Amino acid sequence: MTQRKLIPIFPLDLVLFPRQELPLRIFEPRYKQLVDDCMLGDGQFGVCLIDYNNSVNGWNSPKLVGTIAKITKCEDVGLDGLQLQIETIGRNSFKIKNIISPLISQPANYDPLSAEGHQEISELHEKVGVEEKMYIQAEVEMIPEIDENISLKQWERLVELWKKKIVTQALPQKVEPHALDHVLEQYYLNTDTPTIDYVYSLSALGAKDPNELQPILETNKMEDLIQKVEELLTINIH
């Protein structure tokens, strides 16, 4: 039976893949509440790419497939206690089955970076009840991990596609092959024993926009994953 659970959701302008690290600086009151609740619980929340075509009570809406983030470290930044720095690592991916809206709607002209914006949200929170959640929650279903292995031949083809894409994008400037190999070394992507994590990392290197990575996160079979990564790394020259 597929596991379902209720988790806090953090929509971000990025895609988090399983086992990738994600540091975050938390300054909005609603996400400070999310982190506080996570620290009192199992330390886990969902990271989803923002869906700019939809909203939840005026707030950024999440795409329906995301990744569980596990908090591994949390500390105050500065002396005012208004900002947190957290370290997280990606766990399983999941699919949202039901979104639970926060009771507070986004105020008009809300500025998440300003003290006035924080004050406004805090006052609204007191009116609805401080026990109420300011952040989006969702009932989610875990997606089983891809347990197949990628072959060295498949991996080498993906690397060649990535190199070709970088070289083509740089034109008319010339990119030396050793410079590309150096980038792969920097990201620990020189390997004879590739895993799915290498594929995720190479995809992130080859994407210009996080929306290009969402279809890769949504795959649950190795053949589909390879196909989506090939599409991402292939430049169609008209």
Summed up, what is this model?
With 238 residues, the protein is α+β, with helices and mostly antiparallel strands. The chain has seven helices and seven strands; from the N terminus they run ββαββββαβααααα. β5 and β6 form a beta hairpin.
Kindly list the characteristics that best describe this protein.
238 residues; alpha+beta; Archaeosine Trna-guanine Transglycosylase, Chain: A, domain 4; 2 domains; five-stranded mixed β-barrel; 34% helix; 29% strand
Describe the structure.
It is a single chain. This protein has 238 residues and is α+β, with helices and mostly antiparallel strands. The chain has two domains: 4-142, Archaeosine Trna-guanine Transglycosylase, Chain: A, domain 4 (Roll); 152-233, no CATH class. The protein contains seven helices and seven strands; from the N terminus they run E-E-H-E-E-E-E-H-E-H-H-H-H-H. It has a five-stranded mixed beta barrel with strand order 1-3-5-6-7. Strand 5 and strand 6 form a beta hairpin. The longest helix is centred in the last third of the chain and has 19 residues, at 152-170. The chain is elongated. The chain starts with a strand and ends in a 5-residue tail after the last helix. The mean pLDDT is 92.
